Amino acid sequence: MAHAFTGLAQQVNCPVVDSAISMCGLYLTGQATAPSDACCGGVRSIHQVAGDSAQARRETCECICRTIAMYSDLSDEAARALTRECGVKAGIPIARDVDCSRIS
């Protein structure tokens, strides 16, 4: 089912990313010591929507970068640890300084 969205990656990924990241706000800003279950569910949804297409993963990466750039108080350490903390094997890092063009 994850593949149902990949053809619509550009249209679907950013709203999914925005929603997922918003659920992680407390963790990403250091106000919580661990991501919530809702946050981790959102992180999983980001990677499901990205699917297997390198182009969709790059587009999803760009959405992630745009979304987390809105957090002036973002903890870079928490952002980088998010997928690990949620137990998601990620091909798309969650960080401000990612070169999305290198995602394959």
Automatic annotation (TrEMBL):
Residue ranges of domain Bifunctional inhibitor/plant lipid transfer protein/seed storage helical in the record: 14-90
Top-level taxonomic group: Eukaryota
Pfam family, one: Tryp_alpha_amyl
GO molecular function per UniProt: lipid binding
Annotated TM spans: none
InterPro entries with a match to the protein in the record: Bifun_inhib/LTP/seed_sf (IPR036312), Bifunc_inhib/LTP/seed_store (IPR016140), Plant_nsLTP (IPR000528)
UniProt-listed GO biological process terms: lipid transport
Name recorded for this polypeptide: Bifunctional inhibitor/plant lipid transfer protein/seed storage helical domain-containing protein
